[in-house]
Amino acid sequence: MDAASRFGPAYYSRYYGNPRTAVTSRREMGRRGDFIASFANYLDLPVRSILDAGCGVGWLRIPLRRRFPRARYVGLEVSPYLCKRFGWVRGSLASFRPRAPFDLVICYDVLQYLDDRDAERAMTNLGRLTRRVLYFSALTQEDWDQHCDKSCTDGDVRLRPAAWYRERLESRFIALGGGLQLRRGVVTQLWELER
User: Which of 75, 113, 157, 170 is deepest in the core (most CB within 10 A)?
Assistant: First the structure.
């Protein structure tokens, strides 16, 4: 199914609009945005540009803009419906090529929607897109089997083991925990047990 058909009003109504079937909430995403921003601030990393890849309805935008008011925010989305509604940049993480990398890149629950070829390309592209910090999460096979509430989680995805993602991240990033990844080569005070 193409993006226009799959990621239309019905999808967002079910997973974001209806509190009984929503996969997340504004409140949860606000806490997530505050966590991401707090950790970047803790590491004393300037954030002047933010890419929210697969930004959906944009619930991370407000908390991130509140914490980084001077940062340029770009919402990247494949859904024509959301691009028209919110003014996001239409494109795929697998092929998005901006002029310059972003200080902070968010890739929250996107890659499970991509086939293996495009997921590989997107993982490689994350290394090009991220100047400093990446927040990365994807629904894994382990999450599906052990952690998620299947009544409000879209199971029509490609489930990969967590190791698949970790292997591809570790060549370009240092895992900091909580989904945060520091771009290799970025100079900051980072204690051994924070890795």
Answer: 75
3-state helix/strand/coil string of 7-47 = CCHHHHHHHHHCCCCCCCCHHHHHHHHHHHHHHHHHCCCCC
The edge-to-edge listing of strands for the beta sheet with 180-183 is 89-90, 72-77, 49-53, 102-108, 130-137, 180-183, 173-177
Q: Is the predicted pLDDT of residue 154 greater than 90, yes or no? A: no
Residue 15 has pLDDT above 90, yes or no: no
Q: Output the pLDDT for position 3.
A: 65
pTM: 0.92
C-alpha–C-alpha distance, residues 122 and 129, integer Å: 10
Maximum average pLDDT range among 8-22, 43-57, 141-155: 43-57
- What CATH class has 3-194? alpha beta
Rounded to an integer, what distance in angstroms lies between the CA atom of residue 156 and that of residue 64? 29
Token pair, residue 93, equals 């993480």
19 burial class (0-12, 13-18, 19+ CB within 10 angstroms)? exposed
SS3 133: strand
